Amino acid sequence: MKRLLLIACCALLGSAVLVAAKGGRTLPSGTWGGEHVSLEVSNKSAMLEFDCAHGEITRPIKPDAHGRFNVPGTFTMEHGGPVLRDEKPSSSPARYSGQVKGDTMNLIVTRGKQKLGTYTLKRGEAPKLMKCR
């Protein structure tokens, strides 16, 4: 009986480690805010707002066992003043990477080899944005 219990515990622990190693936990839904950035996370995607830009991540953010993540998305520059009727936003591929520790996230935004910014966000905190509209 003890041997069977030990085998069952080992199997359960092994599967839990496997899920954690594969990034099985998705970043919880909700708002993350910081200086010049807002991140709205859902279970399937995330939307970002910056002072003069916005971004989108079209997949779940799944931090690894150490809280690190690296996901593709898009980054779209904005500008002040009126937007022309036939003006198309200039969206480009971007990477959103960083680390989550508790309710704090460090976020790095890159487009190609260019680092666009580094941000610190807090879960449940209102963002401090100054939109350039």
Explained architecture:
With 133 residues, the protein is of the alpha+beta class. The protein has one domain. 15% of the residues lie in helices and 44% in strands. The protein has one helix at 2-21; strands at 30-34, 37-41, 46-50, 53-57, 68-77, 91-101, 104-111, 114-123. The protein has an eight-stranded antiparallel β-barrel with strand order 1-2-3-4-5-6-7-8. Strand 2 and strand 3 (46-50) form a beta hairpin. The longest helix is centred in the first third of the chain and has 20 residues, at 2-21. The model is unreliable at 4-22 (pLDDT under 50).
Largest sheet: 8 strands, antiparallel, barrel
Poorly predicted parts: 4-22
Order of helices and strands: HEEEEEEEE
Strand order of the largest sheet: 1-2-3-4-5-6-7-8
Total domain modules: 1
Determine the structural class based on helices, strands and strand pairing: alpha+beta
Q: Averaged pLDDT, please?
A: 83
The coarse overall form would be globular
Distance between the termini: 69 Å
Radius of gyration (CA) equals: 19 Å
- The tally of strands reads 8
- Number of helical regions: 1
Bin the strand percentage. Answer: 35-45%
Give the fraction of residues assigned to helices.
10-25%
Attribute tags:
133 residues; alpha+beta; eight-stranded antiparallel barrel; 1 helix; 8 strands; 15% helix
Q: Which SSEs are present, and which pair or pack?
A:
Elements lengths: L1 H20 L8 E5 L2 E5 L4 E5 L2 E5 L10 E10 L13 E11 L2 E8 L2 E10 L10
Antiparallel strand pairs: 1-2, 1-8, 2-3, 3-4, 4-5, 5-6, 6-7, 7-8
